[in-house]
Predict the structure.
Amino acid sequence: MTLRVGVVGWPVAHSRSPAIFGEWFARHGIDARYETIPVPPGEADAFFATFPADLHGCNVTIPHKGVAARHARLEGAAARLGVANTVWREGGALHATSSDGEGFIRSLDEARPGWADVPGVAVVLGAGGAAVSVADALAERGHALVIANRTTEKAEELARAVGGTAALWDDLPDALSGAALLVNATSLGMGNNPPLCLDLAPLPASATVADIVYHPLETPLLAAARVRGLAVVDGLGMLLHQATVGFEKWFGIRPAVDETLRRAALAP
Ligand code: ATR
């Protein structure tokens, strides 16, 4: 029987996940289908409360990560954050976790082995949903964190939640001078959004610059970091690695993230 999995969101047609999972199904000979499942905001509660009997499991994207979390037994980051992006069946109940932060860490570990041994703080830019996951995962790994965000109150709130420090945007040069890692977790640089304009000169030569934006793959921030000779990590790795968590929960195999998968995810 073909197992049905998919991603629940609104809108969701643009998702790269069917391409990612399709590549893994072919590799591992798994008889499954990965669909985009559009659920309007007013219907999300009912969807997760009466989870379709023929759905083996699902990913969840904006704006339903909070709703999904209210209908499942939460594990890991989902229990800490109250949002879920990966739902599976276990012992007759729905279970869920949030794999974005884990995906970010796995991506860093893979692209830049040893990054965690470089002394210095991790500077996270942003305080939205993506930044919360990234900051939570870094804090879980024991990294000292500095959070900066356009809206300072949100940076302060996130810093309090993860045991880090909030910095004013204008004070970033100071924070960057002691950074081992700089992460753009804002939506700046994505698609037609304005670029993230930041002077990278204060960063130590040993620092890594990561962007969670993957469209475009080479953001202006990463291009500037490359010009400075810094190690860079693009956002596609996070997308691919967060997906490995669902695949493993649903099919019992940890799938590989490699160049072929990156190409499959980016194919038009
Ligand atoms: P996501 O779930 O992808 O993180 P979000 O919750 O809307 O999306 O958060 C977007 C992040 O990008 C926020 O940190 C936002 O800053 P604010 O909290 O001040 O809104 C940041 N962001 C978006 N547009 C921005 C801009 N033009 N300049 C600076 N920061 C911006």
Observations:
- The chain has a mean pLDDT of 97.
- The first strand starts at residue 3 and ends at 9.
